[in-house]
Structure formats: C-alpha cells, structure tokens
Automatic annotation (TrEMBL):
Signal peptide: none annotated. It is an enzyme of class 6 (ligase). Its EC number is 6.1.1.22. It comes from Pteruthius melanotis. This is asparagine--tRNA ligase.
C-alpha cells in the first residue's frame, strides 16, 4: 500500500486501490451498518474521513488514539470533502485513555485552557493551525531574503555583547564553576544569551552587503505579561551602502507584505480558523492593510499628537521618554489604523550604534519603529553610525571603548553607510492572526504553567 499523508489523500485527483494513512483519531461515530472515523496527522486542518465496516471497530479505537488504516481511496459523496478512505484494515498503533486525556472530542477548548498542557496542546486544532502558519511564515521569510540577494548568517546565541544596552540579560553559569572556590568564567569573560544578532550582522555586512539572521533571542525582563516572552525569535537584516531611512523602511514594509501574502495563500484554512473564532475582525483588517499606504511621522510629531490627545495615558508623554504600548496604539488609531513609521528618536534614548542626525536643539538619531494596529511596535531599526569620530566619542562617554574596540575596527577598515532592522516573529504572528496573548503563538508556553518542560 502506498503511504499518503492526510493532506495528500484529501487533495488526490484520482481514486487509488491500495493506500495507507497514519494519524490520530479526531472523532469516532459507530452506526449499525457503518463506522465513521476522522483521522488527522497534522498535515492539514481538515481531517480525512474513514468509512469502515463495524466489525473493524476495536475497544481501544477511541478519540486520541494513533491508528494506521489501509484501504481504498474513493471519491466522497460528501460535498465538503473530495476524497474518503474505505477501510479494509484498521490497526491501533497507540491507544489513548480518553477519561484522563485533557482534550475532548468535538469540544472547542479556549486558548487559556490548552495553555495548561504545553506537552499536549499541539493536538488541538487551533495550535495545530498556528504551528503550520509558523512553519510557512518561517519559510516565507527565508524566501523573501534569498530572493532579494541576502546572505543568511547564523549569529551566536552565546555572546559577551549587550546589543540593546538595557541590561536585561540571561547570564550563563557553569556548574563546575559554582563548586570551585575560585570563580572563573568559561570564556574568561561574562557570557550571556543573545538579545540581538545585530552587531554580528554588522560584521558580515562589511563583506556581503546584504545579510540577515533569523533565530532565538532572549530577554530577562521582569514581566509575565501578555506581551512579553523570555525566549522569542527575531528576524534581523543589515544593508550596506544605504544612507536613507527610507531604504530600511521599504525593506520592512516589503518583508511584511510579502510574507503575509505567502501565509494567506498557503494556509488559507488555518488562518481562517483564527479569523473566524479568535479575531473575527482581523481578516478584512489584514487584507486591507496589505494594500494600504503606511503613515510616516517623526518622534516630535508623535509627541505633539499624544499631548493633544483627549485620552488620559498611564504614562505621560514627554519628549525624551520612550513610547509605551498605549502611546503606540493611540498613534496607529490617530493615523487611521494603518501601519505607522515613527522616525528620528531622541539621541539619549537610543543605543550607541544609531547614527547621529546632528540636529539641534532636539538632538536625534536616525532611528525608526514600525507600529501596527493592535500590537504596537513590530519592527525597529536605524541607520548605523559609520563615522569613526562620532562613534569613538559616544563610546568614550559611555565607558565602552575597550569592550567595543572590535566594533571601532569596522569603521577603520572600509566603513560604508549602512543600516538595518529587527522584527519580532511572535509579534508578527500576533498581528496577522489577532491573538491577544503572545504565549499563544509559541510552540511551548514554558512560563505559563507551574511545570516547565
């Protein structure tokens, strides 16, 4: 028998006499003259209907059990399904105790409920759809950059650099060092889990012009909110020979629109599940935003808009303060619920590597954030300071000259104007799917349950 995935069986154009399908039972319905099963193997949202003689029913053939079915693939008389499997044999590969199994047949479990079972929730329709969408979006991101001539770089996960300068780092400790009377570092210097691959990408941009990375990053923020994760994935890119923030913003926008179009075309049923049951208004919103024009305002203009707002904010908007989520969402609403680029942030608010605009008296850097409806900041980027004297002066004031001597070397040997940006992958998924809690767009919600995997 030819083995078929459920997706392949459902999409088959012609009947087949000998096929074998493996998966997990999603429903069992036994009648006097016929037995109906629906099985799913994760390859599609839709399950494959199996029609069998009641004599093939077994005691351990239950919801959740793993089965292997052999038989004939035939045209289905059901108008909602193209093909069905007429079973000749059914083998229960792995039984399932339905009384203790936390997921129940034909029950739509809330995301809050399945979050309690991080090791089992991938068998839920909603999380299965989410993981297929993640997979297609990941492939779409790689395709976008490869198609546009970017070189993919694997940046280090363990590093001594604090790219963001916020100090929210996970420090790495070695077990034998704890027991030793003499405290030593494994790498002779303190090492941390990375918060960004940007600085390493800048190294590579000095040789490859256009580079990107897509990997795990870590933030030790003291927050268990619906917006924060300790571990998440970041898409980052660096472009050499660019002197305009507009170039950076164009890549941000093209990336967002291209990947979203890919996801909508390749996972229509999975996305529809979210837009139907999780965020009903999101479908038309996403489709509209794909073709709408974005808005561009400066940080100074943003502050004036916020100060004149009738809304009372928890954090009072003042020049020199970072934009909070409530500010970002208001700005998007004020601009007509379209993506908003905010440019030219205060000099003292941003990290040392951002390019000085040399403007006064409101001293700013060439930085940009992309804000989107419902989420707030999705992407952040800037032109990088390529001028050696400016960079030396700032690092000296911050007391970082020795730590970043290698970074200064990049400006001594063939430095060019360049810039880049980063996009939080989980925030992107939150936006296109309309999911409120960011922990519902990751495979394992490690910190949402008392038992960590």
């Amino acid at each position: 028998a030819v083995r078929l995935r459920v997706r392949e069986a459902l999409g088959a154009r012609e009947p087949a006499d000998a096929v074998r399908v493996q998966g997990w039972v999603r429903s069992v319905r036994s009648q006097k003259e016929v037995l109906f099963l629906h099985i799913n193997d994760g390859s599609s949202l839709e399950s494959l209907q199996v029609v069998a003689n009641p004599s093939l029913e077994k005691k351990d053939l239950t919801f959740g059990s793993a089965v292997e079915v052999q038989g004939k693939l035939v045209k289905s008389p059901h108008r909602m399904q193209n093909m069905e499997l007429q079973a000749e044999t059914i083998r229960v590969v792995g039984p399932c105790d339905i009384w203790s199994f936390p997921l129940k047949m034909k029950e739509r479990h809330p995301l809050e409920y399945v979050r309690q079972f991080p090791h089992l929730r991938c068998r839920n329709n909603t999380l299965g759809a989410l993981l297929r969408i993640r997979s297609e979006a990941t492939a779409g991101i790689h395709s976008f950059f490869q198609d546009n001539g970017y070189v993919h770089i694997h940046t280090p996960i363990i590093t001594s650099n604090d790219c963001e300068g916020a100090g929210e780092l996970f420090q790495i400790e070695v077990s034998w060092a704890k027991e030793s009377a003499q405290k030593t570092h494994f790498f002779n210097v303190p090492a941390f889990l990375t918060v960004s691959g940007q600085l390493h990408l800048e190294v590579m941009a000095g040789a490859f012009t256009h580079v990107f990375t897509f990997g795990p990053t870590f933030r030790a923020e003291n927050s268990q909110s619906r917006r924060h994760l300790a571990e998440f994935y970041m898409v980052e890119a660096e472009l050499s020979f660019t002197e305009s923030l507009q170039d950076i913003m164009q890549v941000m926008e093209d990336l967002f629109k291209t990947v979203t179009s890919t996801v909508l075309s390749k996972c229509p049923h999975d996305v529809e599940l979210f837009h139907k049951y999780i965020a009903p208004a999101q479908k038309s919103d996403i489709t509209q935003k794909l073709f709408s024009s974005s808005c561009r305002i400066s940080y100074g203009e943003a502050m004036e808009i916020l100060k004149q707002a009738a809304q009372t904010f928890t954090f009072k908007p003042e020049w020199g303060c970072d934009l909070q989520t409530e500010h970002e969402k208001y700005l998007v609403k004020h601009c007509g619920e379209v993506p908003v680029f905010v440019v030219n942030y205060p000099y003292d608010l941003k990290p040392f590597y951002m390019r000085d605009n040399e403007d006064g008296p409101q001293h700013t850097v060439a930085a940009v954030d992309l804000l989107v409806p419902g989420v707030g900041e999705l992407c952040g980027g800037s032109l990088r300071e390529e001028r050696l004297p400016f960079l030396e002066s700032r690092l000296q004031r911050l007391g970082l000259t020795d730590a970043y001597q290698w970074y200064l070397d990049l400006r001594k040997f063939g430095s060019v104007p360049h810039g880049g940006f980063g996009m939080g992958f989980e925030r992107y998924l939150q936006y296109i799917l309309g999911v409120d809690n960011i922990k519902d767009v990751i495979p394992f919600p490690r910190f949402s349950h008392s038992c960590l995997l």
